[in-house]
Amino acid sequence: MKHWSAEAFARRSRLQWQCIDCSGACSLDDALAEHVEKLVKAKEAQDRKDQELRQVVSPHLGVSVRAVAGLSTDDAGVSLRLMHALVRKRSIAEVKAARAPILARIKDLQGQVREAEQGIPVLDAAARQLRVKQLLHENADPNAPDRLGFTALIYAANTGHQEVVQPLLNAGAQLEACDEAGNTALIWAADRGYLKVVEALLTAGAKLEAYSEFGITALMNAARKGHLNVVEVLVKAGAQLEHADIGGSTAFMKAASEGHLQVVQALVKAGAQPDAASADGSTALITAARTGHMNLVSVLLKAGAQLELRNAHGDTALMKAARQGHLKVAEALLKERAEVQARNFYGFTALSLAKVGGHLSVIQALKKAGDQPEAGDEDSLQP
Length: 383
Hints:
Elements: H1 6-12, H2 27-57, H3 62-69, H4 74-88, H5 92-117, H6 125-137, H7 152-159, H8 162-170, H9 185-192, H10 195-203, H11 218-225, H12 228-236, H13 251-257, H14 261-270, H15 284-291, H16 294-302, H17 317-324, H18 327-335, H19 350-357, H20 360-368
């Protein structure tokens, strides 16, 4: 019997898998079936090796365990794709509305994952590195992603397993491979605060300015989480300070919104703009005043943050502090000569807003500073 290659068979057969040269059964069909079966078995073996590589790197990371245990990722995948679609539309309001139920569903799936995690062996660093090298020697593909786009290198960055980063890179792992949300290994390592992994990826040439579908860079993640040492390394490497995400927030603003004082100081020292504003016009000072971070307010004032900048509603930092009843913040702003009688776009002053909140101490401080309402003014109305 003549042995035909798959290419030769393709040239001599129809899509119905019937040989043109024969009217009935043909040995070519058997030859192709045997060839296809070999390909399928080889693919299954390759998939098992690729899956084991990801599992060895990160046995207990949720999405990896879901893939290993055979749990469906459809719900999580659809939910994440919905978020990404809204992001691409730049529909911030819809993203915020969709976020809670989506995260709730993912949390539910994580409960299933924890059950699947029971009994999965965890290797120490040396054993993990050895097994990774063995799998790579057996031609496991370091760039094979799971169903959510995670490669072995992304898993290593996500879990901080520095010892397997270099073997993966030596085997051709792609530095800029990203998951379904657009996060690279560097973005994940910075988010988790794994300094050694960040340094290894930077040494290998990872792009500092890679960003996710939400516009998030490695620096922004590190700043938001308060990882000072990672922030310093990224800044020293040349990370852009003023890159903004889809909501208009910079790394500086993210650090400020979370109250990470040392990170804010480091970014100011590096030259970050203290008056950068988000999509709704909020500056770091306005946000710090609203949340009552007194130490952060002091740092921002020393950095030269402008007192009278307004958000989309016309609110100043003093108005935000007054509405929330943050007396010390209000006093600090008044000491810097914040405009007491400024009004927002609805006609309210800081005193009006303090009254709405029933913050007597703030009301007294504002009156002492000179905000005396006139008869007939909105401020004379009782909330």
